[in-house]
């Protein structure tokens, strides 16, 4: 039965590209897939908190932020979605206000 549950979760993950999905136990202890969408608003680069900027600079040697977005989750947590230019490639990372990494589906 656990194998079927795991297969079901994998199917849910593969059908929803671009949307964070995470598993949560229901009242009977079974894992259920939960879906949520985070809506971001674009912000000026100067509006990125200092803790977030410092976290980015400490994580990568040569980096610049090309775009920044902000969102407030239903739990009240504010997160930032940053498009980073890192040594010739673009990465997208998520950060909390305090500069710690945010992983969609695991936090908040």
Characterise the protein shown here:
The protein is α+β, with helices and mostly antiparallel strands and 108 residues long. The protein has helices spanning 2-15, 50-59, and strands at residues 21-25, 31-35, 41-43, 63-72, 78-86, 89-96. The longest helix has 14 residues, at 2-15. The radius of gyration is 17 Å and the shape is globular. Mean pLDDT is 77; it is low at 1-24.
How many helices? The count is 2
Mean pLDDT: 77
The assigned structural class equals: alpha+beta
How far apart, in Å, are the first and last alpha carbons? 29 Å
The amount of helix comes to 10-25%
What radius of gyration results from the CA coordinates?
Answer: 17 Å
Oligomer: single chain
Which strand order does the major sheet show? 3-4-5-6
Overall morphology: globular
Give a topology summary.
Layout lengths: L1 H14 L5 E5 L5 E5 L5 E3 L6 H10 L3 E10 L5 E9 L2 E8 L12
Antiparallel strand pairs: 1-2, 3-4, 4-5, 5-6
The gist of it:
With 108 residues, the protein is an alpha+beta fold.
Descriptive tags:
108 residues; alpha+beta; two-stranded antiparallel ribbon; 6 strands; 37% strand; disordered N terminus
């Amino acid at each position: 039965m656990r194998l079927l549950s795991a297969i079901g979760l994998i199917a849910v993950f593969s059908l929803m590209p671009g949307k964070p999905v995470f598993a949560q136990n229901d009242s009977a202890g079974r894992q259920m897939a939960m879906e949520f969408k985070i809506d971001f608003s674009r912000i000026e680069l100067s509006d990125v908190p200092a803790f977030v900027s410092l976290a980015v600079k400490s994580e990568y040697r040569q980096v610049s932020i090309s775009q920044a977005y902000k969102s407030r989750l239903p739990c009240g947590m504010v997160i930032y979605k940053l498009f980073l230019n890192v040594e010739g490639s673009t990465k997208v990372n998520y950060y909390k206000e305090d500069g710690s990494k945010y992983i969609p589906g695991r936090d908040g």
